[in-house]
Amino acid sequence: MNAPMLTIRTLTENDVDAFRAMRLHAAVDTPFAIVPTHEEESRWTREENLARVRETDQQAVFGAFDGDTLIGITGWRREQREKFAHKSLVWGVFVDPAYRRSGIARRLLESAIARAKASGVEQVQLSVGAQNPRAQTLYSSLGFEIYGREPRAMRIDGQYFDEELMVLMLD
């Protein structure tokens, strides 16, 4: 890893193939952290993935790059319905295993939080596997607090996994 070459930016339509490959890799590498299974993720069409990465005032996907290689992603989405428009969601945090523990996830999350602040939302929510203490520690260090727990949120190969619900208040 060459630290000076690492950049964080929003993904564009030109990044859609790398985004798809990263999501497929994440579904296999960390199935308890990514909701779709590999099979489900592989069914997303190119057009659907383009819509996922297309930056709008309501959403963005941030990518970490080592040179031209996508090595991490994080999505941000603002609630569209008026009663929920004060909230946004961080989703799909994933860093290639070769680059973990190097601050990349933090930088991706900081980009998403900055985007949330710029959009005027009052809070950012996320969910994290109750069995994922490294991610929980990272989110807590950024100011996220647990506000609930969803038991049996996910079932993988007959085994249940709880999710902790976290929020970062921006106001």
Global shape: globular
Category from helices, strands and their pairing: alpha+beta
* Fraction of residues in H or I helices: 25-40%
User: Largest sheet at a glance?
Assistant: 7 strands, mixed
Distance between the termini: 37 Å
Low-pLDDT residue intervals, each spanning 5 or more residues: none
Estimated share of beta-strand residues: 35-45%
Strand line-up in the sheet with most strands: 1-2-3-4-5-7-6
Tally of alpha and pi helices: 5
Question: Secondary-structure element order, as H and E?
Answer: EHHHEEEHEHEE
Task: Please outline what is shown here.
The protein is an alpha+beta fold. Helices cover 30% and strands 36% of the residues.
What's the topology here?
Blueprint: E1 6-10, H1 16-29, H2 38-42, H3 46-53, E2 59-66, E3 69-78, E4 87-95, H4 104-119, E5 123-129, H5 133-141, E6 145-156, E7 159-169
Parallel strand pairs: 4-5
Antiparallel strand pairs: 1-2, 2-3, 3-4, 5-7, 6-7
Helix pairs in contact: 1-3
